[in-house]
Amino acid sequence: MTSRDKYVHSQPNHARIDASANLASSTLEYWPSPVHDDHDRLNLELREKVDGLRSLSIKIGDELRSQNSLLGDMAGAFDRSEGVLRSTMSRLSRMAKQNLSSGLCCYTFMLIR
């Protein structure tokens, strides 16, 4: 380094230039550009939508489990009703085969209807 270089580097103006260069580079690091702002905004919107879809899918799953339980209960009730109807039809068939008076059979069928 020559004596002139030493002199230039020791001057306050050079220090000011370095300080302003450091300020400019630090400003670029801390102040996001409009592209970064858009990216951050879109990222936030996407995250909110994903969270909404996640909660919606959880609610759908809960509803499906509830509906499946209800359908299972209904299937059991239909099975029980089927058993009752079969036994009733069996009794009516036996009664008809015993050749009871036709008036009693008609009366029984009318009562069931």
Automatic annotation (TrEMBL):
Q: Which residues cross the membrane?
A: none
Cellular compartments annotated: Endomembrane system; Golgi apparatus membrane
Work out whether the entry's keyword set contains Glycoprotein.
no
InterPro entries (UniProt xref): BET1_SNARE (IPR039899), T_SNARE_dom (IPR000727)
Membrane topology recorded in Swiss-Prot or TrEMBL: Single-pass type IV membrane protein
What keywords are annotated for this sequence in UniProt? Golgi apparatus, Membrane, Protein transport, Transmembrane, Transmembrane helix, Transport
| The name this protein goes by in its record | Protein transport protein bet1
Give the taxonomic lineage as stored in the record.
Eukaryota, Metazoa, Spiralia, Lophotrochozoa, Platyhelminthes
